[in-house]
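Extended Data, panel c. Modelled sequence:
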Amino acid sequence: MEIDSKLKTEDFSYDLPPELIAQEPLRERDNSRLLVLGRNSGKIEDTTFKRLPSYLERGDLLILNNTRVLPARLLGRKKDGGGQVELLLLRRLEEMKWEVLCSPGKRARPGVVLTFGSGQLEAEVLEKTAAGGRIVAFKTAHPLEEILYQLGQVPLPPYIKKHLEDRERYQTVYASEEGSAAAPTAGLHFTASVFEELRTRGIDWAYLTLHIGVGTFRPVKDKYIEDHLMHSEYFELPASTAQSINRTREKGGRIVAVGTTCCRVLETLGDGQGKVSEGRGETDLFIYPGYHFKVIDALLTNFHLPRSTLLMLISAFAGRENILKAYEKAVELRYRFYSFGDSMLIL
């Protein structure tokens, strides 16, 4: 009998009570819980995020994604008097040209002009993408970002049903580079006091940018993981961050990726010796069990959806069995899951 050696998507699933899906952020960011997992030992410890610095060592380096979520959800209508249309901005192609998702798609055929607000913003549909999205060209008398903050809404993940009163709570406190359709949620727990404690302990940090697309929320639908087509996202890693990483590794410090986004950028740019160079571009790196990590030594992350590429990435880092046991423990301890949920440190 032939043995099926391919990795099956169904093996990266778990049961989650719906009430554990966090619908809003905690009042204080760093009051979230922290599950610490030993990637080799499988040991699990239940603690709080405020104690994160105590699990790191002098000379370690945190890498954070400083992307900033745009209010990228626009509600408008066809300019010729047609029905309502919703756009979700995915990726900037040129100054005023964007790839977007459009609903309903039948109202956004090439050549159609959409209008938003009281006419402050228009978008001409140029073409349909292979993935079913649209390429649009915006027209406005003001900077596009300025108009988006007037008319747009924060595109919360579909599993969050509750209205977000303060949209800054779906931003990290260090968010600075506009362009993301989703927050790098592993960083949502950081506060000024946590950074101060890190500094006191001799633990440093540096930044990169990866603009997250909505593909990050999509479950893998293929039977086998290898058949999944990974979405592509834009990244930038500055020379100063590359130098900090290489210097840390030379001195024996650990590289701690804050979030799967940072992990993917570092692993995209890492060489065989674990060094990185500055770079920018698109990455569609798909990390799943069997992958050999070149750069990162530890990973801080939130709890991810079943059958997601993010769950597969952390399974590659710590082992599928370890991860599923840790998730089972998190459910037992009533952790809060997903974007506004609790966090996990894998060492």
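The chain has a mean pLDDT of 93. This feature is highlighted in the accompanying rendering.
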